[in-house]
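Researcher: I'd like a candidate sequence for this fold, 180 residues long. If you have to choose between options at a position, lean toward the conservative one.
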């Protein structure tokens, strides 16, 4: 399976949205250079408040741009970086990949998927009613979170819009992504 990076975003502030960049640099074991969520230990404020010693399993946030088209059809205008993701992708079913999937981005960077982003009420602060659009139920009644996946950086390197994404599944049995 292959895809493409369509946008990269970062911010040194703990803001909800992140501005788009010409490139970002991923740092092994840390995340996006200069991003507020980079670090060995958890950086998300709500998680730091609970236990600041937790490992940072949310170093890089990825969202498929296909979500933006779905939201647009429901009357919401959302573009890359606005939901706080660092990497916007096209052509990869991020939500369908298992824990431990390796994504190679561009010439050098390597990410390992750790779980799903758990959308919170801040999404409704961004656009009222958006939370209902990004949380759904499947046919069996299970909760479906659509706001992307979280990962850790295994190998650092630059990532730019237009870079190829190569997907490598882990050895089975596969474990579905869950919130982290």
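Model: Candidate sequence:
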């Amino acid at each position: 399976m292959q895809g493409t990076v369509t946008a990269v975003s970062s911010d040194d502030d703990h803001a909800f949205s992140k501005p788009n960049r010409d490139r970002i640099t991923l740092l092994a074991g840390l995340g996006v250079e200069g991003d507020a969520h980079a670090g060995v230990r958890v950086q998300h404020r709500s998680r730091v408040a609970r236990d600041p010693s937790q490992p940072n399993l949310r170093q890089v946030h990825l969202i498929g741009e296909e979500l933006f088209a779905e939201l647009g059809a429901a009357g919401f205008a959302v573009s890359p970086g606005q939901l706080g993701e660092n990497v916007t992708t096209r052509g990869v079913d991020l939500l369908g990949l298992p824990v431990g999937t390796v994504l190679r981005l561009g010439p050098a960077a390597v990410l390992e998927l750790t779980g799903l982003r758990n959308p919170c009420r801040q999404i409704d602060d961004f656009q009222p009613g958006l939370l209902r659009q990004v949380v759904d139920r499947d046919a069996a009644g299970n909760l479906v979170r659509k706001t992307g996946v979280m990962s850790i950086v295994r190998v650092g390197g630059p990532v730019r819009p237009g870079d190829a994404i190569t997907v490598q599944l882990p050895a089975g049995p596969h474990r579905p992504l869950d919130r982290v």
